[in-house]
Amino acid sequence: MSSLESLYQQIIVDHAKHPHGVGLVEGEETSHQLNPTCGDEITLALRWSADGERIESVAWEGSGCSISQASASLLSTLADEDADAGAAWTPEQLQALIDEFREALRSRGATPLDEERFGDAAALSGVSKFIARVKCAMLAWVAAEDLLQRRAA
């Protein structure tokens, strides 16, 4: 295993053991996603700015494998880091991020996630080589997309 693969593996393990963004508030609009193949579950909420224009954070709860739990944690961390840097996401920016994430995970390793754009979530690039795990990594991202689509409707 290369040192980069080892680092990526450690990031995933760390986020699975010590997840970020866990905790939903009663009454929040959520999206619940289930991977029927393995039983992984994620319930996710997008927390919007006071003016409703930007996503300030991502909160979630879930159970399942370390990939699904780490992916939700990494999405939450990425949202927090961007918001803290004054770059909270618009719905269009989040949708573009989801689209890029999906494309990379479906590439079977041909398209790695850009570390500059995805931060530590780029550690999930290796999942694309394991088709059975792609759905696990996508759960939180699909939940976020579902919430965006509902809001736009």
Distance between the termini: 46 Å
Shape: globular
Gyration radius over CA: 14 Å
- Put simply, the count of helices is 5
Write the H/E string, N to C: HEEEHHHH
Q: What is the makeup of the main sheet?
A: 3 strands, antiparallel
Task: Give start-end ranges of low-pLDDT stretches.
Answer: none
Q: What share of the residues does DSSP label as strand, in percent?
A: 5-15%
Approximately how much helix is present in the residues? 40-55%
Question: Please, what is the average pLDDT?
Answer: 93
Task: Based on the coordinates given, report the CATH architecture.
Answer: Alpha-Beta Complex
Topology-level CATH name: Sufe protein. Chain: A
Q: Can you describe this structure in just a few lines?
A:
This protein has 153 residues and is α+β, with helices and mostly antiparallel strands.
Give an overview in words:
The chain is of the alpha+beta class. The chain has a single domain (3-152), classed as Sufe protein. Chain: A, CATH 3.90.1010.10. It has five helices and three strands; from the N terminus they run αβββαααα. The protein has helices at residues 3-17, 66-84, 91-105, 115-118, 131-152; strands at residues 31-34, 41-48, 55-63. The chain has a three-stranded antiparallel sheet. The mean pLDDT is 93. Residues 8-136 form the NIF system FeS cluster assembly NifU N-terminal domain. This is Nitrogen fixation NifU-like protein. InterPro entries: NIF_FeS_clus_asmbl_NifU_N. One of its GO terms (biological process) is iron-sulfur cluster assembly.
